[in-house]
Amino acid sequence: MSEEEAPRKRADARRNQQALLDAAAAVFVRSGVEAPVRDIAAAAGVGMGTIYRHFPTRADLVVAVYRHQVEACAEAGPALLASSGTPHAALAAWIDLFVDFLVTKHGLATAIRSDNAGPLHAYFLDRLVPVCAELLAAAAAAGEIRSDVAAFELMFGVGNLCAGVDPRYDARRLVGLLVAGLGSGGGGA
Amino acid sequence: MSEEEAPRKRADARRNQQALLDAAAAVFVRSGVEAPVRDIAAAAGVGMGTIYRHFPTRADLVVAVYRHQVEACAEAGPALLASSGTPHAALAAWIDLFVDFLVTKHGLATAIRSDNAGPLHAYFLDRLVPVCAELLAAAAAAGEIRSDVAAFELMFGVGNLCAGVDPRYDARRLVGLLVAGLGSGGGGA
DNA sequence: CACGATACGGAGCAATGTTCCGCTTAGCCC
DNA sequence: GGGCTAAGCGGAACATTGCTCCGTATCGTG
Prior knowledge:
Chain A has helices at 11-31, 37-44, 48-54, 58-83, 87-104, 108-112, 118-141, 151-161, 171-183. Chain A has nine helices and no strands. Chain A has two domains: 1-55, Arc Repressor Mutant, subunit A (Orthogonal Bundle), CATH 1.10.10; 58-183, Orthogonal Bundle (Tetracycline Repressor, domain 2), CATH 1.10.357. At the A-B interface, α8 and α9 of A face α8 and α9 of B. Chain A binds a DNA duplex through α1, α2 and α3.
């Protein structure tokens, strides 16, 4: 949607943009999502100006790098709802997917909430909250979970839970607890 | 414990340390825990050197400012266990206390996990994890909750959950869900 | 091939935490 | 009261960020 014709950029511009995306992906794997912009520019073999012309903000670059994965996660929602035994199972499976995404990208969960990550934050939430809401509503309608928790709140909380990096901390397990708590007293303990 | 005799600092040094603590407390309330060190130094009417001699690191200053509140929270643990109806109730009440502490200090939860907050992180955890462990063990022994969640993990998760500042996000509610999840399937489900 | 729009590069700016070092002064001894 | 010394102080300077600016190089079209 809103696929207005691209003004046909110059060849070197397109080339650089791709190089930047590849380099950023590589650097993010190696040094985490919080890697300095300079490092990424260096890895891509371009100057600071170039990186900022293509991605006005650090967050925009991160969004671009992970966009298709977020998309995949968003699309998996309805699919899981259709294929899983119960809405609650679908919800759990979907959140698992999301958590996997967050914890495999070193520092993503933390970066999402960083000061100047407004765009990042907004993008993730805008894209995934509706999906989560659908799963949540289905589970609530089936009487499997309480109905007083908003999708936004749940996503926000799950994102928060995925922030740590301590070896004795397993984000997945705590998220599991949270999802389990969702079912407790499904509308009245 | 380890109360080695203080080398009796100079009067102005003690005065400045106190001024720094007071100023920091004030600034933290006004601008959040992430306030620039320079602001605190200015508010206290001292130079940068002074602040760093008394508190080698930003985190050390934060720890010093909140130390007695953390202490109070730690001491409330056993008290709640003795006065509450059930260990689970005591645990919930205690975590509530902790959450209140975190959310009333603008940005504290976020700061705790910030890069160079090692000392902060370590102090909070060292002091409170044992208390949490006691409550957790009591509740588990009473068969009220599953027994496969470590105190460290729970504290870490609760701390993470308290990070956001969005108006449509209520950390307390999600922590409540988490604690509720603790009880679900008490050891299997 | 010439020329204008497009894109590039990287020095430079602002904000931060932290370190360093010459100057000041409290506190003791006479 | 007057020195003297070490403890203490202030703040300039450094390193690391994200981000901006603008002179220069390059693309692609006529």
